Amino acid sequence: MSYQSHYFKEVREAQRRSYSPYSNFKVGAYLKAKDGRTFYGTNVENAAYSMCICAERASLVAAISAGYQPGDFESITVTVDSEVPSSPCGECRQVLKELCDDDMPVYMTNHKGDMIESTVKELLPYGFSGKDLNK
Ligand code: THU
What keywords were assigned to this record (predicted)? Predict the structure, then answer.
């Protein structure tokens, strides 16, 4: 499924909820399941910096906690306030690899409405997965 303009409105709402008093870098994620249900994620920071939770992972954790399973997801849209849309960090790419189809679209946007489209596999080629553990 391709990017739809309302994803932008939704992901910006997710971003608005960011708790990022340390970096002031607000990130929003909008995860869409194949059955149409959607989940917001935003970054949640902590005075112990290493405990910061990224928006992408927050949305996936919300979905799995609601009963969704790996492979149930159709797309994820991410937004930041940067000149060029930024892409998910390495840790989030690994979690996307675990829970989403390799060909799932990842839409990266910014405050200007620029959009870069990629996929889970493009973002993490040769990624480690359960297959490597013979699972
Ligand atoms: N952040 C995300 O939410 N997603 C990413 O993929 C990269 C970074 C957050 C973590 C932290 O709260 C802030 O952005 C600055 O790194």
Answer: Hydrolase, Metal-binding, Zinc
pLDDT digit string (tens) for 78-111?
999 999 999 999 999 999 999 999 999 999 999 9
Domain map of the chain by residue range? 5-128
> 3.40.50.1820, 3.40.140.10, 3.30.1440.10, 3.30.450.40: which CATH number matches 5-128?
3.40.140.10
pLDDT digits (tens, 9 = 90+) for 24-83: 999 999 999 999 999 999 999 999 999 999 999 999 999 999 999 999 999 999 999 999
DSSP assignment letter at 50: G
56 among known catalytic residues: yes
55 Cβ closer than 6 Å to some ligand 1 atom = yes
pTM for the full model?
Answer: 0.97
Confirm or deny that 89 is annotated as ligand binding. yes
> Does the beta carbon of 29 sit less than 6 angstroms from any atom of ligand 1?
no
Contact yes or no for 58/19 (Cβ under 8 A)? no
- Which of 10, 13, 56, 98 is an active site residue? 56
Q: Tell me 100's DSSP state.
A: S
* 22: CB partners within 8 A, 6+ apart: 45, 47, 49, 52
